[in-house]
Structures are given as C-alpha cells and as structure tokens.
C-alpha cells in the first residue's frame, strides 16, 4: 500500500479535523472557517482541497457509512446459513442506527439529512447494502436453502421491509413515539421471519 502524498495527507488532516468538529459541534454549525482555524490555515487553503463545505460533508458521511457497510459486508461473507446471515445483517444495521442515535446524535442528524436530501454518498451506500443482501440470498438459492428466484429483487424487498428499522429518520420517529429499542427489535424479527418464509417458499 503506497503512502499518501503531501496533498492527500493534507486532505486527510482536513477531513480528520472536520469529523472531530462535526462530532462535537454538529456538521451544520461547523463552518469552513472553524476547520481552517483548527488547522492554522486560511479558509481559502481549505478550498484548494475541497471545492465546497458540501464536499466536506459528503466526505465525512462517506467515512461513517463506509464503516457501517464494511461491517455488513463482513457479516454477509461469514460461513453459515443464508437465513442466519440475513438476520445478522438486519440486526447490525438496526443496532447501529440505535447506537448512532444515542451516542453520536450529531452524526445521526447528518446521516438523516443526507438521506432526506439524497446526497451522492447515500446512493453508494444503498448500492453496497443491496449487493451484500443479494449475495447472501443468491448463495441461499444456490444451496437450496431458498427457492429459486432473482436475488436482486429479493434484496430490494429486504431493503423495503427493513426500512422502518434501518432508516435514521424512521428510527428517530419510532423513538420519539416512545417505542423502545427492544420493541423495535422484536417487530423487526417478526417481519424478517415472514420475509425468510417467503424466500423459502418462493414467489409464483
């Protein structure tokens, strides 16, 4: 692995400081001038590496979502039944959203806005989410664990079925309504069981 050059190192330093400020101040309250001040730079110098504040926002959101997706991909690649891995994937993303809400509220708010405003990083994350689910379903179909079908369509169904427990805005709304995390986990499991039963039976 090659070492980053001077320009890449500076870009990483800017992103590191921006992420720290986002976690303490919130991404909306953090100005480019705040990032520049922390680094002993001028705002104009920051713009040499990032064309806009929005570009910085996307970079930090991408870092966070990459961590969630990478952990999910590791779950999808585990040995074991496809059914168990689908349950593990669903729980990973549900638990991650709950943890983010309670421990990193400012970052949770950023991801909520990113999804509402359809930032580019969200499309990439959703693409990885679909791909990891489709890979697990395809393997289940190949082994005879699930009925034959289209893994991509199954992945879309999984995404839609899990929306209430994986989308940050919907998770926040459930918590605001007083629905406990344990209740959310139980209702998600019920939905998953129905979904897996459909995968085993197949769709005519």
Describe this structure in words.
Helices cover 78% and strands 0% of the residues. It is mostly helical and 204 residues long. The protein folds into two domains: 1-51, Arc Repressor Mutant, subunit A (Orthogonal Bundle), CATH 1.10.10; 53-201, Tetracycline Repressor, domain 2 (Orthogonal Bundle), CATH 1.10.357.10. The mean pLDDT is 93.
* Biggest sheet overview: none
Task: Provide the CATH topology of the largest domain.
Answer: Tetracycline Repressor, domain 2
Distance between the termini: 49 Å
Low-confidence stretches: none
The share of residues in helices is: over 70%
Apparent shape: elongated
CATH superfamily of the largest domain: Tetracycline Repressor, domain 2
Q: Output mean pLDDT.
A: 93
Number of helices: 11
Helix/strand class:
mainly alpha
Radius of gyration, in angstroms, nearest whole number: 20 Å
- Which percent band covers the strand fraction? under 5%
Please report the first level of CATH classification, the CATH class of the largest domain: Mainly Alpha
Question: What's the domain count?
Answer: 2
What pattern of helices and strands is seen along the backbone? Answer: HHHHHHHHHHH
CATH architecture of the largest domain: Orthogonal Bundle
């Amino acid at each position: 692995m090659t070492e980053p050059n001077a320009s890449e190192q500076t870009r990483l330093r800017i992103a590191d400081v921006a992420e720290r400020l986002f976690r303490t101040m919130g991404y909306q309250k953090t100005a480019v001038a705040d990032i520049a001040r922390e680094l002993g730079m001028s705002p104009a110098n920051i713009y040499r590496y990032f064309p806009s504040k929005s570009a910085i926002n996307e970079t930090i959101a991408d870092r966070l979502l990459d961590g969630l997706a990478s952990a999910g991909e590791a779950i999808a690649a585990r040995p074991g039944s496809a059914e168990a891995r689908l349950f593990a994937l669903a729980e990973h993303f549900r638990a991650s959203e709950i943890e983010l809400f309670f421990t990193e509220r400012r970052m949770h708010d950023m991801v909520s806005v990113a999804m509402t405003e359809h930032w580019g990083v969200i499309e990439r994350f959703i693409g990885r989410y679909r791909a990891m689910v489709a890979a697990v379903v395809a393997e289940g179909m190949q082994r005879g664990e699930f009925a034959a079908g289209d893994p991509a369509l199954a992945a879309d169904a999984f995404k839609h079925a899990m929306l209430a427990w994986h989308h940050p805005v919907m998770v926040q709304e459930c918590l605001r309504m007083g629905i406990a995390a344990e209740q959310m986990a139980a209702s998600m499991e019920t939905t998953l069981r129905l979904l897996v039963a459909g995968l085993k039976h197949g769709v005519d």
